[in-house]
Specification:
Protein name: Conjugative transposon protein TraK
Organism: Flavobacterium endoglycinae
Mean pLDDT: 85
Helix content: 40-55%
Keywords: Membrane, Transmembrane, Transmembrane helix
Largest sheet: 4 strands, antiparallel
Order of helices and strands: HEEHHHHEEEE
InterPro entries: Conjug_transposon_TraK
Low-confidence stretches: none
Shape: rod-shaped
Strand content: 25-35%
Number of strands: 6
Radius of gyration: 33 Å
Number of helices: 5
Distance between the termini: 121 Å
Length: 206
């Protein structure tokens, strides 16, 4: 009888040990499954799908601070292209200037008002002049906020009889604002100033 009881006790310990092992394994597997689920959800939240030409393109979301230099440079380039690209068409000039002024504060508006008062835009239209700009580089200093920038560019002023090349150097600072359709980068140019704008060369059109 004693031997039988001992065997039953040993078998019970084996069953209990095996049961505890199974339970522990289930808990580990469950915790791992929950962890992987949260990890997968987190990764999926960082992905953005863009529909272009009927195809779904995968993009990845990132923190704004990781993209500040890239977005800031593109904001400055976009402003300069709108502000300094002119054609002898009043509607085109107003459209470009309006888009540019959404990206900057009243420092750019004052420059526009001064040029308008001095009949600069009227001269563009009456003289059939086109003005284009090529951005060479934009430097952004993100060590301090607001972020300081300098833009190095070249202008081409195309007249009926000649093409004038000019160098352009501007500077200013960038302040964070809310993103919108008119300001997708979420920056506002402040203290915009033209440091240099001088003739480089002139050539006669044939």
């Amino acid at each position: 009888m004693f031997t039988k009881m001992k065997n039953i006790d040993t078998a019970f310990r084996y069953v209990r040990g095996f049961t505890m092992l199974v339970i522990a394994g289930c808990i580990i597997i469950s915790c791992y499954a929950v962890y992987k689920s949260f990890q997968t959800v987190s990764l999926m939240q960082d992905k953005v799908y863009i529909l272009a030409n009927g195809k779904a393109l995968e993009a990845y979301a990132s923190e704004r601070k990781d993209n500040i230099p890239v977005e800031a440079r593109d904001h400055v380039k976009t402003f300069h292209k709108f502000f300094f690209t002119l054609d002898p068409d009043d509607k085109v000039i107003k459209t470009n200037i309006t888009k540019a002024l959404y990206l900057a504060d009243d420092s750019a508006k004052r420059i526009y008002d001064d040029l308008k008062e001095n009949n600069f835009y009227s001269g563009i239209i009456s003289g059939n002049i086109s003005q284009t700009i090529q951005i060479d580089s934009v430097s952004i200093d993100i060590r301090e906020y607001p972020y300081r920038f300098r833009c190095y560019a070249r202008q081409s002023i195309i007249r009926t009889t000649s093409i004038m090349k000019r160098s352009l150097l501007t500077e200013g600072s960038l302040r964070n604002v809310s993103r919108s359709d008119n300001n997708p980068h979420g920056f506002l140019i402040e203290r915009f100033n033209t440091v240099e704008n001088k003739d480089i060369s002139a050539e006669t059109r044939k």
